[in-house]
Specification:
The chain contains ten helices and no strands. It has 220 residues and is an all-alpha fold.
């Protein structure tokens, strides 16, 4: 066991391992690109849907059931299904990652909207605000802490799952996991897993810190 971790440390700190098209720096950039783009697409889909459901109160069952859908989604199975339908491209990966991220964004946005005090909304309407003004000037600002929590959770889930890009022969940190398994190289497999975990932890801590700084006078 000691020898394994010694070899892992050597693998992670080797200058050669960080350079080139197969180096950690390049694979990390690919992994972040997949993760951030998928989360951005999911936010474009999930935020308006969550705001609409939370503002109107209609379709609440969609937001509630999406949480269960996100937990039960067979990500690899979805990648394979889209891969068979569309061929070799990044579409299967992005579709699977977006489908994974949307439920967390929708449910937290909906929860944030429903947590706004009805009396506050009534007071805004009493002052002559129109529906869209109540939404964007009252409800959305008050719901932002939970909305940001949803975005953070979605991004961390996507980062942890973006290794599936390597399953269909693309890059990212998952390349080390799948190549290591194929080569029976336990150090490479463990190195890829450690890197993914570190990226997820660092992003989570950074976003949590940003959220606390932005809303330090408000409940998260």
């Amino acid at each position: 066991m000691f020898e394994l971790f010694k070899n892992l440390g050597a693998w992670l700190t080797s200058g050669e391992q960080w350079s080139g098209a197969d180096g950690i720096a390049h694979r990390l950039a690919e992994h972040l690109q997949y993760s951030l783009l998928a989360t951005l697409i999911a936010a474009v889909i999930g935020l308006p849907l969550g705001l609409l459901i939370g503002h109107t109160g209609r379709g609440a069952f969609v937001a509630i059931n999406l949480a269960s859908f996100g937990r039960a989604l067979p990500t690899v199975g979805l990648v394979v299904l889209v891969f068979l339908a569309s061929g070799l491209s990044m579409w299967p990966v992005y579709i699977a990652l977006v489908a994974l991220a949307v439920p967390a964004i929708v449910t937290n946005t909906y929860a944030g909207m429903t947590a706004v005090d009805p009396d506050v909304k009534d007071a805004a309407r009493g002052q002559g605000m129109r529906a869209h003004q109540v939404l964007f000037q009252v409800e959305l600002p008050l719901a932002l802490p939970l909305i940001m929590t949803g975005l953070r959770l979605a991004l961390i889930q996507v980062v942890a799952t973006a290794t599936i890009a390597a399953y269909v022969s693309f890059g990212g940190l998952g390349r080390y996991v799948f190549d290591g398994l194929a080569q029976r190289d336990l150090v490479q497999v463990l190195g890829g897993a450690v890197l993914v975990a570190l990226v997820a932890v660092v992003l989570d801590l950074a976003l949590s810190g940003l959220q606390r700084a932005l809303f330090r006078h408000r409940p998260a």
